[in-house]
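DUF8094 domain-containing protein structure dump, as promised
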Amino acid sequence: MRFVWAVAAFVLAAVMIVAGIAQRTIFQGPKTETASISAETPAPYLLIHGAVLNQLPGAQTLRAQGHGDIFAAYGRTADMKAWLADVSYNDVTLDRKGAIVTKNVVPDAAAGGATAGSDASAGSGDAGPGDAGSGNANADALPAHSPIGSDLWLDEFQQTDILIAPLQLPEEMSVLVATDGVKPAPADVAISWPITNATPWAGPLIVGGAIVMAVGVLLYILAIRHARRSRGPRRKGLPLPVTEPIDLAVVAADKGVISAGPASRRAVSSGRRAFAVLPVVAVSALLFSGCSADSWPQLGQSATPTPTATVIVPEGQQAPAVTKAQAERIISRVAHTAAKADDARDESLAATRLDGTVLAARATNYALRGSIADYKAPAPILTKPLEIVLPQAYDGWPRSMMAVVDDQKTKTSSIMVLTQADAWSPYKLSYEASLEASTLMPDLAPTYIGATQVPPDSSFLVMPPNKVAAAYSDIINHGEKSKYFDMFEAQGDHLRDSIASDRKKRLDEFNKTASNTGSLTFTSGPGAHDPFALATLESGAIVAVNVNETDTVKPTNSDAVIKLENNPTVKTLAGADQSATGFSTTFTDQIFFYVPGQGSNEKIRLLGYSSDILDAKVIK
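structure tokens r here:
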């Protein structure tokens, strides 16, 4: 009977193991579903909408194949359409029935818009090049853009001959596929999604079958043992012969024969242990073959998410200009270009990534370094770690962002404003300043929400942004006598203290030698560059302004002459070493303030600043 149970266990174990393995192999089915994309009219770009990417749940994988370099990028659909506004491209969307449809879009040069051309449905087959002769006759005259390195993309990929990009994009984002922006985009493009084909009973069947097999082996061993013990019928024993003494010499001579019995028993026992090890190895191998997560029932409950503070997006607010990863990449590119321009003293190169007060200060520095050998180069632009990113919430252009970077090596922090003029332009750094050591930043919206830009003449702040530079300049000029003095926080304002201390020192030195023959005066006023402001969560704003400080030295005696004996900086910029009319020297300040909203009891507070010499000239 034991043999019957052992055989039954073997059969059941085999059925269970085979069923479990079959679920993970021949019965499992495909792991992905793929949709190919085709276009009848070749175009330099292929825009795949988020609706196509999300027609099936799960992560998406983009596959594009062609000859040479293949480029792909993703970003918000509205941004990509804006970037493609003046070029021909194939637009891939879903029709009302959920089928993939490709339209050739060619801009109307006269109207400045875009028109849709031929349609092509995409099925499961490979995409073909289509008819190269079809399309708008104006396509050859359209401008071509290189998609590589655009600040508009949230991320980009570039590979040779075949490109495979893992994605997980929402419906409001799209993917752009191209080569170099001139040659047609790859014709062999497909999107694939993973298919959920978990086999929750495969693991239990395989492991259960292994356990049943082990039980069968044990039953088989017990059956053999029982059969050996009960071999044949038992009979009555015959009379034993008379016991005789054993001859020890004979025993010694035949000890090999006497020891043969125990040795044989040891060999049999060893064989039984080896036989018993085989099922254990088999069980272990089968156990590990079914250990993947989707081979077992998921009985555990999902973790309960921890509630976090949320920020409500104002109704009607537009999308933020950049993501944090995008901002990191943009600032790194700006810093790289600025460093190259600084080394070469190349103002044209600097102008590709710098603007406003930052570029004006750089241009002056390049001129001075070209004439003064030991003149210091500008401090490098900090890039990481990026602590704060406050993008403007705006779908149009120009669009901007504010960022704060902390440098651990130099223990300094930098606050900056970068602006993109249009969809095709790179972001340019227009304001940059060092944060005060004890700066307390106001509460800001998260990066994924962004902030609205405050109009220059906004009446919702205690002072409109376009008045801040003039008011602060008045405080610099008149101190406590200024009518704006009580509106600005004096404690912690190191810029105001530094300017006052420097002016007093220079005036004292000048009066020691030239008070009877000349005069030194100081004035401050708004600079040439417009203010920029982004809203904070307390209805206030961070405001960046430009203030110019001008030093004027004039002779008060008609026979006197102003000489620049120990001032190579002014001498280089003015192009003269003496003047009978005098010299004026201008320094430019980039200043960031926190301006509270109307009704607040807070004062306008200095956040950070930077100062650079801007110009010097002979008074005419």
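The chain has three domains: 32-194, 316-452, 454-598+613-620.
lmk if u need the other ones
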